[in-house]
Amino acid sequence: MADCHVVVDDPRITGQFCRRLSGVSAELTLLGVVHDHPASIGRVERVLESIAPDVLALELPPAALPLYQAYARDGDSDESPRFGGEMSAAIRAAADADVVGIDAPNWSFLRRLITRLVADRVPPSTARRVVSSLGGATREALTYRIAATLTHATSTTVVCDDPIEYDCSHDDSPAEQAAHERAHVATVQALLGSVDTDGTALAYRDETRERCMIERLESLRARGDVVAVVGIDHLGALESALRVEGLES
């Protein structure tokens, strides 16, 4: 595992959250984040200020990008964006990079998911739950697109989600933020580890999402150095698959 200590010395930037994969022609840096957490926002800002990638890949559906780009432009440039958490912070910090959304829903995801459901002959009840979850994700992506249109057309910034509140803030030291984030991740992972999701609708959806993100990252590498900002729960799976499939020389 190659971490990002070589990039910048910061307690929020460790091998638990940051992985670098060196390819023949370009490098890929994977940044794991906890949504809206001050440590995650600080991590993406520090790393992106240091390495200036050609491409910034975000775990967002393409339809949501315009809204987060609007968030990145809003407010004081010397501070983190008011809305959009680590995603809008990443866009602002990588101002010269091409920004790409690599998450579902998209046609590649839908094709792959339907193919897998048919091949596995899943029970109708599981298929219905998968379809139901897709409907919710599609409506959410459409909401982001409409919010972006309204934000561009008016003087009002439309906020789709309230920021998550944690027992630490941007005013805390990087060490305090890092400690809180690690404790939070450990608690969540312990809870998830006690739940068996194998073969469920959630597993089908998330495993297919990861497969599509992996393929997208492989294709983006041809455009230059890439930094990908993804949820910490996806970080290990993405890194392992990309290494196995030959991204790293």
Task: Give the topology, please.
Layout: E1 18-22, E2 27-33, H1 38-51, E3 55-58, H2 65-73, H3 85-93, E4 98-101, H4 107-120, H5 124-153, H6 174-193, H7 201-220, E5 226-231, H8 232-244
Parallel strand pairs: 2-5, 3-4, 3-5
Antiparallel strand pairs: 1-2
Helix pairs in contact: 1-3, 1-6, 2-3, 2-5, 4-7, 5-7, 7-8
Organism: Natrarchaeobaculum sulfurireducens
Protein name: Pheromone shutdown protein TraB, contains GTxH motif
Question: Any overview of this molecule?
Answer:
With 249 residues, the chain is α/β, with parallel strands linked by helices. The protein has one domain. The protein has eight helices and five strands, in the order ββαβααβααααβα. The chain has helices at residues 38-51, 65-73, 85-93, 107-120, 124-153, 174-193, 201-220, 232-244, and strands at 18-22, 27-33, 55-58, 98-101, 226-231. A five-stranded mixed β-sheet has the order 1-2-5-3-4, with helices on both faces. Helix 2 (65-73) crosses helix 3. The longest helix has 30 residues, at 124-153. It starts with 17 loop residues before the first strand and ends in a 5-residue tail after the last helix. Mean pLDDT is 81; it is low at 145-150.
Number of helices: 8
End-to-end Cα distance, whole Å, is: 14 Å
Ranges with pLDDT <50 over ≥5 residues? 145-150
Gyration radius from CA atoms, angstroms: 18 Å
Could you give the order of strands across the largest sheet?
1-2-5-3-4
Give the tally of structural domains: 1
Average pLDDT number: 81
